[in-house]
Design goal:
71% of the residues lie in helices and 0% in strands. It contains 5 helices and no strands. Helix 2 crosses helix 3.
């Protein structure tokens, strides 16, 4: 199959492809992209590195250029539609979730994919972290209520201790009064009268 775009829409298996003006322009554009820049700098390269270094570089660059353009041609011809072009093939691959990369863009594409996957993982982990933080806040609220209850108990205990100190103070004063009373036969009876203060 040639690179011709003259294939009719009603494609039949017996259609014979023939070389067209479009095929010629396609071939010349491939040649121009492959070696156009090299032709511009050919005299400079010969003067700088010598004739043989240029021949060696051409022998090395020739197969690489041929393989790259053969891959591009195969890529364009890989469509199931006979009249498809480069855009159709790229759209079809994106719909199939196939990423098309070259050796130069492979690392950039892999880094992008890694960043996207890492971002998705972080979003997933962020949901879990948020859930744990909400649980932690509930625990802190529960702890705050328990500290408040404990504070109430401490306040009540302080009040109870103060009441006990008041009562022991009164008992001590009464004991001192009893000590001051002299028990004897000549003691008047009013000194033994019951005290006016009552113990609470």
């Amino acid at each position: 199959m040639s690179l011709s775009q003259d294939i009719p829409l009603s494609y039949a298996e017996e259609t014979v492809s023939r070389w067209s003006k479009h095929d010629t322009s396609w071939m010349l554009s491939l040649f121009g992209t492959a070696v156009g820049a090299g032709i511009l700098f050919l005299p400079i390269n010969i003067g700088a590195g010598g004739f043989w270094s240029l021949v060696i570089m051409a022998l090395l660059a020739g197969p690489m250029t041929f393989l790259a353009h053969r891959g591009l041609a195969r890529f364009v011809l890989s469509s199931s539609k006979p009249n498809a072009n480069f855009t159709d093939v790229v759209e079809k691959s994106y719909k199939a979730k196939v990423w098309i990369v070259s050796p130069t863009t492979l690392m950039a594409t892999l880094n992008t994919v890694r960043a996207v996957l890492k971002d998705a993982r972080m979003r997933e982990e962020a949901g879990r972290i948020q859930k744990e933080v909400m649980t932690l806040l509930e625990d802190v609220g529960r702890l705050d209520k328990r500290i408040e209850n404990l504070d109430k108990h401490f306040t009540q205990t302080t009040k109870d201790i103060r009441d006990i100190q008041i009562t022991t103070g009164k008992i001590t004063k009464r004991g001192e009064r009893i000590e001051e009373i002299q028990l004897g036969e000549d003691s008047p009876a009013e000194e033994l009268a019951a005290p006016v203060d009552r113990i609470e």
